[in-house]
Structure formats: structure tokens, C-alpha cells
Amino acid sequence: MAKLILIAIAVWLIITLLRRYRRHLDDTPQSRSPMGESMVQCAHCGLHLPESDSICAAQQYFCCQDHADAHHAQHSR
Ligand SMILES: [Zn+2]
């Protein structure tokens, strides 16, 4: 009878550990997208950068204000 209880405790322990391990895996940053943000490309120099760091002008993205201005200067000529 004592053996049965030991086996039951062992099985419960294994299940608990597996569940905890799986939850630990779910919590690791690798399972989530590290770049939650979408990347955009500078229309002037082609640099990739996060959308929040970019400058959006005339439905195009730029890495900095200089490139936005340069791009518009090129295209307004
Ligand atoms: Zn640029």
C-alpha cells in the first residue's frame, strides 16, 4: 500500500514539474516576438529601423529628418 502512495506522489511530482517547466518555457522572451514592433525601411538610404523611431512623411518612412528632407528635395526637382 505504501508503494502505491509513493508511486502516486512520484507521478504527481512529475506532472507538476512538467507543467512548471512548460510554463517556464512560455515565459521566456524567445517564445514571444522580441521585435513586437514592425520594422520599416528608410526610403532614402534603405536603413531598417523600428516604426516608432522612424519619421513618416508623405506615406514613406525615413530614418531621420535629414533624409526625409533630402528625399523630398530630390523628388521636388
Ligand atoms: Zn535614411
Descriptive overview:
With 77 residues, the protein is of the alpha+beta class. It has two domains: 1-34; 37-77, no CATH class. It has two helices and four strands; from the N terminus they run αββββα. The chain has helices at 2-27, 65-76, and strands at 39-41, 48-50, 55-57, 60-62. The strands form two sheets. A two-stranded antiparallel ribbon has the order 1-2. It has a two-stranded antiparallel ribbon with strand order 3-4. The chain is rod-shaped, with a radius of gyration of 27 Å. It starts with a helix and ends with a helix. The model has no long low-confidence stretch (mean pLDDT 87). The chain binds zinc ion. The site of zinc ion has 7 residues, from loops.
Q: What composes the largest sheet? A: 2 strands, antiparallel
Question: What's the structural domain tally?
Answer: 2
Strand % is 15-25%
Write down how many β-strands occur, each being a DSSP E stretch of 2 or more residues.
Answer: 4
Describe the strand arrangement of the main beta sheet, using strand numbers.
1-2
Could you tell me how far the N terminus lies from the C terminus, measured between alpha carbons in angstroms? Answer: 91 Å
The unreliable regions are none
Number of helices: 2
- Identify the bound ligands: zinc ion
Classify the secondary structure makeup into a structural class.
Answer: alpha+beta
SSE arrangement, N to C: HEEEEH
What overall form do the CA principal axes indicate?
Answer: rod-shaped
Q: Based on the structure, what is the oligomeric state of the protein chains? A: single chain
The helix fraction, in percent, is 40-55%
Supply Rg: 27 Å
